């Protein structure tokens, strides 16, 4: 049975869907009892911030940028707890997907698709990404922008760098967050995100922002927090940059023959559809696979042979680049199918 950690679930499904929140507000954090130990942590944290500021000045960040970015920097004990403690949920795709993509979310996805259809079609054509996948990612990541996280990103990244468990990674993300601020894309007080620093309606880490964010509306800012054009184009640019194909779907659920060799499963094994057909793979209704010689695919078994099995196309691999969770990919793919074939 597939095991998912709480942190993985926080990435792949909105908090409202699962009935829990993956963050606490700054006010809630500040209500914790003050102890001698916490005072000591705060002192060490402030010393660490001073050290970071000095390093940042040496790297060329301006004093004005650093004054604004660190003006209200705080230590998030909750971010450290979430990073270290990841209780496990036992789920299968059959129990997970109805939670990740309930009927109300599928209906809302169709409504959002229609609401922004002209813009989505324009962006989809420009980047070669079917609009339904842009909407599906938007829906799974942040419930269509309604849940983007309430943590101050600079504080969250500084806290996790200070914690030391993954200091190099979070310092790199912090430098890039400072670059985003210095380049004028967002004011520090508006740079909100998850406890791990994933930002905006696309939940980009600062490194992803630097690589893929787009100023589609032409206002000089890559605003993945508030601009629909920038949000949709940034998501599409990411997918396009990691090998997306707009002439195929993401994958399809299939049936395995009784004696299927499970060593053939996994994204590292690619075969043409006709080859999988010869090995006994069929569509869910038992009919033959599509007859296309230009498609290679993998067999993915997220749980076990008794659970859902997917024939994964190139776009499945692209979605795995966004979030390396088969459950995440299945949720995005399923929601995209619900947009394409509304009930």
Descriptive account of the structure:
With 343 residues, the chain is of the alpha+beta class. The protein is built from 17 helices and 9 strands. The protein has helices spanning 6-12, 15-18, 26-30, 36-58, 63-69, 77-84, 93-100, 103-115, 117-127, 131-142, 153-163, 167-182, 206-212, 228-241, 273-278, 314-322, 326-340; strands spanning 3-5, 88-90, 151-152, 192-193, 251-255, 271-272, 282-283, 296-300, 310-312. The longest helix has 23 residues, at 36-58. The chain starts with a strand and ends with a helix.
Furnish the topology, listing elements before pairings.
Elements: E1 3-5, H1 6-12, H2 15-18, H3 26-30, H4 36-58, H5 63-69, H6 77-84, E2 88-90, H7 93-100, H8 103-115, H9 117-127, H10 131-142, E3 151-152, H11 153-163, H12 167-182, E4 192-193, H13 206-212, H14 228-241, E5 251-255, E6 271-272, H15 273-278, E7 282-283, E8 296-300, E9 310-312, H16 314-322, H17 326-340
Antiparallel strand pairs: 1-2, 3-4, 5-7, 5-9, 6-8, 8-9
Helix pairs in contact: 6-11, 7-17, 8-10, 8-17, 9-14, 10-17, 11-12, 12-13, 13-14
């Amino acid at each position: 049975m597939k095991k998912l950690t709480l942190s993985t679930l926080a990435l792949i499904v909105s908090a409202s869907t699962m009935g829990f929140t993956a963050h606490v507000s700054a006010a809630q954090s500040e209500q914790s009892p003050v102890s001698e130990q916490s005072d000591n942590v705060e002192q060490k944290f402030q010393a660490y911030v001073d050290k970071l500021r000095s390093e940042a000045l040496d790297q060329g960040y301006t004093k004005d940028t650093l004054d604004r970015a660190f003006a209200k920097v705080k230590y998030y004990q909750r971010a450290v707890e979430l990073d270290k403690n990841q209780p496990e949920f036992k789920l299968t795709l059959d129990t997970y997907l109805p939670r990740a993509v309930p009927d109300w979310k599928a209906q809302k996805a169709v409504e959002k698709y229609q609401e922004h259809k002209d813009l989505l079609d324009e962006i989809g054509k420009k980047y070669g990404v079917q609009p339904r996948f842009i909407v599906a990612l938007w829906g799974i990541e942040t419930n269509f922008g309604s849940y983007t996280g309430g943590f101050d990103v600079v504080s969250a990244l500084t806290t996790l760098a200070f914690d030391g468990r993954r200091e190099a990674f979070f310092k790199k993300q912090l430098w890039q967050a400072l670059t985003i601020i210095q380049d004028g894309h967002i004011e520090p007080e508006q740079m909100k995100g998850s406890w791990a620093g994933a930002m905006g309606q696309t939940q980009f880490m600062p490194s992803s922002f630097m690589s893929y964010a787009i100023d589609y509306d032409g206002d000089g800012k890559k605003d993945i927090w508030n601009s629909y054009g920038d949000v949709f184009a940034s998501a599409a640019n990411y997918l396009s940059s990691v090998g997306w194909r707009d002439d195929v779907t993401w994958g399809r659920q299939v049936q395995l023959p009784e004696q299927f060799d499970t060593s053939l499963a996994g994204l590292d094994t690619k075969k043409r559809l006709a080859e999988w057909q010869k090995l006994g793979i069929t569509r869910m209704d038992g009919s033959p696979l599509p007859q296309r010689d230009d498609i290679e695919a993998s067999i993915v078994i997220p749980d076990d042979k008794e659970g859902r099995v997917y024939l994964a196309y190139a776009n499945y691999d692209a979605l795995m680049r966004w979030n390396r969770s088969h459950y995440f990919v299945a949720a995005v793919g399923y929601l995209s199918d619900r947009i394409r074939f509304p009930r």
